């Protein structure tokens, strides 16, 4: 299985909606980059990222239920970390309402809303898509 860039915003929105993830700000003008994994011509995983100089925001990790617990999510997160590093990011942030334990296992730690950098606070995901109760997490990328 290979991770490849995803460009079809309609397909991206359908995949995210199929697992209950937000799609409100995913359109042709979005700066988010998405990557997918196919298996036998079926998309089985997807991840996205927005980069803001030294900060990056992990967007919308999803793996279809039949393919979970096989390390695919970890591969996608590693891919985004490498991509963010190549773009100059020093830290990767995310917001989650359901997967904080998963991301703790990936080396992320929880931070407060006050600790969140302005570039991340300015995103649609932070400001109005995710609820204020979402857990904000961060991982240093220089390690």
UniProtKB/TrEMBL annotation:
InterPro entries: Acyl_CoA_acyltransferase, Bact_Acetyltransf, GNAT_dom. Keywords: Acyltransferase, Transferase. Residues 1-142 form the N-acetyltransferase domain. One of its GO terms (molecular function) is acyltransferase activity, transferring groups other than amino-acyl groups. It comes from the Bacteria. This is GNAT family N-acetyltransferase. PANTHER family: AMINOALKYLPHOSPHONATE N-ACETYLTRANSFERASE-RELATED-RELATED. Coiled coil: none annotated. SUPFAM superfamilies: Acyl-CoA N-acyltransferases (Nat). The keyword Transferase applies.
